[in-house]
């Protein structure tokens, strides 16, 4: 048995112990997400437009992550709608930034790995970098949207008559609590995944200016900062959607 | 009246944010004097003809030549006009197409006469712009709390850099130990900033540390039992020292944030619960902790999964286009990311168990 299979089994068993049926669903969502991610890469390799393929895949990935979580129907619908809005915002920000910074493709640090590979494959790697940045933000956006939507849904359930303005304020409070720690998830993920790169920079005496302008570093930093922007904007978007729905519900009840 | 005031505030805020972002970008666009390297601004571009090329895997690409004219903006030769040749492909994998107005780092050659080659494009302006957007959003949405968040990132970055320095001075001999100590310091500082000094914070800290340690232990046991089959350390990127301990250190640091995030959520909710209903037994607290954890663990594992996997996209694509099989492309590029995701997942699930148990045992109703 390979190490990956063994780790997968350990994870599955632990998830079943903690979550029962929900544990199996969560594990399955990980597996299916991987399948979609890999399929996305294959489609890009078949020369389908990378950004469009990524956006379509992102919507599917978001829906799997959110609807297969244990959030209530109202919460997960709102979380999904909010995260799609945030996804559009992210795409709008990321495209000009990536063209401006030109971080597509590979850096000098990749030279050794690229040995023997043809890099003239006819796929625009700037677009691939845009796809990478969008995909790496999905998990964080989905998580933030679920957390806020579930919190607000809980409040609505407990105080049926809550005014939508009050709900908006509550959402901001919940959002503030969530962001403080969600930012850590992102930044430690970033520190961890680029540890080797930082050791490389230090060992080869890169100056601050060298690091800031380095293609590989810039690409990773842009991806993580864009995720951060995504998570932060998820708070007002989710809260606004939730209170908008509540307002509509109140109006409908009045008419009846 | 009140409404008018708030909407005015928002417009003022938006104006300030926009001004701040553009100011940051403008500053970086004109900070050439701060660099030692020679910087060159492109003023005019002549694009040549494209040549079609096909590689051994029938990938079609186009090769373009371009010549541009511009001026050196800093250093000894500031103000000198120069023309530089460049070539780029459609895929831009290792090359760039330069356009008017861009600033580039160049290498100057003075023999036989002054000429230059392009090293790379200057990227600080877009990065500063993006960082400015992120920082102002944090302040606008989180208000004062934004200060805590940003200072936590700053302190952690400095600590991280110090650890990298220590690791380098040790030639990577003690990488796991250095980053384990760093992990403890990271947790302490971050949790102190998020929760303040309290019993809740200590409970969270012990849950985080125990869960992380247990995760690494489980990983090492699994690696031992399976002889690390299917783990290709040689596919690790940017490796300058022994890869296996480095990989473990990477995962250790990578999962820490998610584990803290989750433990904070669970312990904080359980403390509130115990305060509202002091009659609940330790077992009941543990069970509600598990119920909270059950719903957050799935999305949280996905956060790290996307961070670890997305960055392998470009290289996997290149492998596929170079005539490699799906299986080989996966093994050489995505398998380590997959391994990291699974290990992180184990850490996240263990945190649910440990933080619920510790909260059940140690949190009493009368404490905040």
From TrEMBL, chain A:
InterPro entries: UCP031503_TM (IPR014564), YibE_F (IPR012507). The keyword Nucleus does not apply. The chain crosses the membrane at residues 35-68, 80-101, 128-157, 178-201, 221-242. It comes from the Bacteria. The keyword Membrane applies. Keywords: Membrane, Transmembrane, Transmembrane helix. Pfam families: YibE_F. This is Membrane protein.
Automatic annotation (TrEMBL), chain B:
The chain crosses the membrane at residues 125-142, 147-164, 176-195, 202-226, 300-320, 340-363. Keywords: Membrane, Transmembrane, Transmembrane helix. InterPro entries: YibE_F. It comes from the Bacteria. Pfam families: YibE_F (PF07907). Coiled coil: none annotated. This is Membrane protein. It comes from Lentilactobacillus parakefiri.
